[in-house]
UniProtKB/TrEMBL annotation:
Keywords, in A-Z order: Membrane, Transmembrane, Transmembrane helix
Listed name of the protein: G-protein coupled receptors family 1 profile domain-containing protein
Organism: Teladorsagia circumcincta
Segments crossing the lipid bilayer: 20-41, 53-74, 86-102
Length: 104
């Protein structure tokens, strides 16, 4: 299918792009670092009591959310705002994989 037949499904203005790329991505990267530290800290606690186990699971789930944010939102914003077709196709394949996996 050629690009003349395809229409743009979404566009990014600079404010939305800036919030996602310049604010959201550094927060997600800081979350990855901090949650890795927490994961290491809470996994060393041998008597896994309820509060410690809760915080360990919370750190794992938050780490997964941070890791999903970066390719899902940041790459999408970069691809659409800069009109990078290659990056958009990579993002689209990733999004279809995540969507398909979530439906199983």
């Amino acid at each position: 299918m050629s690009s003349e037949n395809c229409s743009r499904n979404e566009s990014y203005d600079f404010a939305r792009y800036a919030v996602i790329v310049y604010i959201g991505t550094p927060i997600a990267l800081a979350g990855v670092v901090c949650n890795c530290i927490l994961l290491r800290l809470f996994s060393k606690c041998h008597p896994r009591k309820s509060p410690t186990l809760y915080l360990l699971v919370l750190a794992i789930l938050d780490l997964l959310m941070d890791l999903l944010y970066i390719p899902f939102f940041t790459v999408d914003a970069l691809a659409i705002y800069h009109q990078n077709e290659f990056l958009y196709h990579i993002w689209h394949m990733y999004a279809m994989l995540v969507f398909g996996t979530s439906r199983m």
